[in-house]
Amino acid sequence: MKKELLYLLFAVAAGELFMPAGTATAADRVVVIPLGGVVGDATAADVIKGKTFSSKTAGKGVAGTLERHPMGQSYTNSIGMTFNLLPAGTFTMGSPDGSGSEPYEPGRSSKETQHEVTLTRSFYMQTTEVTNKQWNTIIFDSGLGAKPSTSHTGDTYPVETVNWYEAAYFANRLSIIESRTPCYTLNNCNANVPGAGMVCDSVDISETCTGYQLPTEAQWEYAARATTTTAYANPVYFDASNSEVAYGFNTNLHAMGWYSYNNSMENHSAETAYEAGTKPVAAKQANRWGLYDMHGNVREWCQDWWDGSAYSADPVTDPMGDPTGSYRVARGGRWDSIARIVRSAQRSSTTPGTIDVIQGFRLVLHSGQ
């Protein structure tokens, strides 16, 4: 008996546009655009989620789920962290206040002034938050620091209870291992090891480094939106009428992220139940750019200082945040947040030495590095 093959073909960065098109049997020929090749045919077996593939004549009798990686290029580094290449571009950062053509975004703050942002360089964004396994590989297993997580310590759970300096240290160590130039110089750090509350007096950030970094706030929101303009990045199945922003059910958010409503509910397949706290990364739907957990799970450090003021309405190019400050930006909300706190535009910040069970991070790498 033939099984239906649900295929989802998305826009790719530099070519034709394929949108979700329904179902097909495994014997049908499915048109795809492979990396480094021409438009061709593939079977479900040819396509590995998040990986590249070559065109091939479709076979017969193969059934499965076919998901074309939504961006044109992905990168897997030396310890198995995956990154998707996001194109340079211009987007509207912030949320609508109802004064223009767009309706007021429920739950917005006055500090989310809409403005045009241009990012002139493409960059690789980590597809998931840094996991316990990744942290342990770089920091704990090499004797450089401690295991910080206190919510869940399994390999596939996001590392948490990590402060900003410790996240920057992780980025530096990973850069060194891969012979990249570190981006951060951490000055006069205390005696605590990374993962146990290491705090530094100051930090210098290189403008010419080739290594891993925390995303800027603009990069983070650009990646979270993934071309969308709504409060939450549209999952594959999207209910535009749902605008719940408190503790209740939100169709869009439940499909994509972990927040207060589904904190201890079933996972996306409804087969198992998770305990309260952090959840394994990539257990929900990715956004259109193949990025997971941009809404909820753990709040993520960004590189920028933020003094708490609203954005200017003026257009900006490659913004880096405030030049100095007392607070670093943290984005994305967390597993215990109400819905409005995990919107794409939601802004928050905390002191860089803060360690909290809800605080994690993911990394970026500039293209060409």
Please provide a written account of the structure.
This protein has 2 domains: 61 residues, no CATH class; 298 residues, Alpha-Beta Complex (paralog of FGE (formylglycine-generating enzyme)), CATH 3.90.1580. Helix content is 10%, strand content 19%. A hairpin with a 7-residue loop joins β3 and β4. With 369 residues, it is of the alpha+beta class. A 4-stranded antiparallel sheet has the order 6-7-10-18, with no helix packed on it. A 4-stranded mixed sheet has the order 16-15-13-17, with helices on one face.
Short description:
With 369 residues, the protein is an alpha+beta fold. 10% of the residues lie in helices and 19% in strands. A hairpin with a 5-residue loop joins β6 and β7.
Which descriptors apply to this entry?
single chain, 369 residues, alpha+beta, paralog of FGE (formylglycine-generating enzyme), 2 domains, 4-stranded antiparallel sheet, 4-stranded mixed sheet, 4 helices, 18 strands, disordered N terminus
Largest sheet: 4 strands, antiparallel
- What's the domain count? 2
- Uncertain parts: 1-68
Rg measurement, Å: 21 Å
The third-level CATH topology of the largest domain is paralog of FGE (formylglycine-generating enzyme)
Structural class by secondary-structure content: alpha+beta
Mean pLDDT: 82
Quickly count the helices.
Answer: 4
Query: Can you write the helix and strand succession as a string?
Result: EEEEEEEEEEHHEEHHEEEEEE
Give the % helix: 10-25%
Write down how many β-strands occur, each being a DSSP E stretch of 2 or more residues: 18
Output the CATH homologous superfamily of the largest domain: paralog of FGE (formylglycine-generating enzyme)
Q: What percentage of amino acids are in beta strands?
A: 15-25%
Q: So, CATH architecture of the largest domain?
A: Alpha-Beta Complex
Distance between the termini: 49 Å
The order of strands across the largest sheet is 6-7-10-18
Shape: globular
